[in-house]
Amino acid sequence: MARHFCDIRILLVIAIVAFIYIQVRLFTAQSEYAERLAAVVESENRCTSQMRLLIDQISTQQGKIVALEEANKYKDEESAQLKTLLQDLKKKSLQNLIGKNEEPVAAVVIMACSRPDYLERTVKSVLKYQRSVSSKFPLFISQDGTNPDVKNKAMSYNEIIYLQHVDLKPVATERPGEIIAYYKIARHYKWALDELFVSHKFNRVIILEDDMEIAPDFFDYFEATATLLDKDKTIMAVSSWNDNGQKQFVHDPRALYRSDFFPGLGWMLTKSTWDELSPKWPKAYWDDWVRLKEVHKDRQFIRPEICRTYNFGEHGSSMGQFFRQYLEPIKLNDVQVDWKSANLSFLMEDKFLSHFAKMVSDATPIWEPEAILKPHTFNSDVKIQYRDQAHFEQIARKFGIFDEWKDGIPRTAYKGVVVFRHRSERRVFLVAPDSLSLLGIE
After folding, report:
1. Side-by-side strand order, sheet with 300-304
2. Catalytic residue among 287, 362, 381, 388
3. 0.85 surpassed by pTM
4. Rounded to whole angstroms, how far apart are CA atoms 233 and 273?
5. Does residue 268 sit in helix, strand or coil?
6. Residues 391, 393, 399, 402: is their CA dihedral positive or negative?
7. Annotated catalytic, 287?
8. Of 407, 362, 384, 360, whose CA–CA distance to 260 is shortest?
9. Virtual CA dihedral for 317, 419, 424, 357, nearest 10 degrees?
């Protein structure tokens, strides 16, 4: 009995110890859980605090964004108002220049960049003859860039409307070593012509550069030829320039020709032609691009025998290329031709072909250039046939004319024929192998 009671007491002690152990473990576990719970609560409180701070920051930024949007909206509206005001001022200035009821023959734009001394010389030459016909030929200066001396010089002329092209986009040339200036020039030309044809709605524009002087009959010449552009869609532009217009190669100030080669250097085009060219305008070398057959599409250009512009730009983007040999000796016309009474219908496509063909047909054939270069005199025009480009270049160098070709066309050529004077009035025709057939000469 006593042993049985003792066993019960032992079991009871074990049970009490086990209970106490379990309670201790439970208390420890609860304490750890409480600590973790407290840590979680503290972390949650920190997160809540950080979230509230972030929400406050977002709200602040949203407020700033809204304020900036309002400011930008205000600036856009202000800019639009200023732009409208500027356009109105330009229109008023233009109306003052051309008169309210007069349709101008063409706008004249001088393309400038960073040569204030050249620009002044050009403007002086242009204003000398433009002032008397200013309503027919409103004058613009378009500056590329921000050169302050050029801008101040351009804005000093009350009778000239100033345009400024500022393009800060970087230039990526297509080939290494290319001159960036040719890319900038192309951009400037497109912008300026878009401005004049689209914004100002001119029907014709004459393009000059800031290194040119003009002849006394410059404006009369372009007024007389303007109707040709309207009537004959096979004429792409009218130029005041002859690449072979050096003193020794010209004689007749009234002589005009059609050419398959774009001369440039003082030229006039119409809005319809610009509407065609503008969307595909090249990134660079715009003048050589116009000379591509795929661009001019068998259309021709009117050019004079004696130049109506003189290029004095020895220093510029082309770094004086050809200046001494070809540009400096150019003859600038000094005769006041009465273009208003001149009949220029012979320049229409259907008439000029036969007109020019007769001149070539009547010329005396010469087989060797040396025969002309000798010091005796021929009594008539002469023609020399060349075999190919290399042969043409050889003959051209002997006379001293331009030997350059572009896209298979020699400079100044019409139907492959290059014409120039040699020793006073006599014409020399350099004739391609297929020129006679193209001219319809048997």
Report:
1. 160-165, 139-144, 107-112, 204-209, 267-270, 235-239, 300-304, 256-259
2. 287
3. no
4. 9
5. strand
6. positive
7. yes
8. 407
9. -150
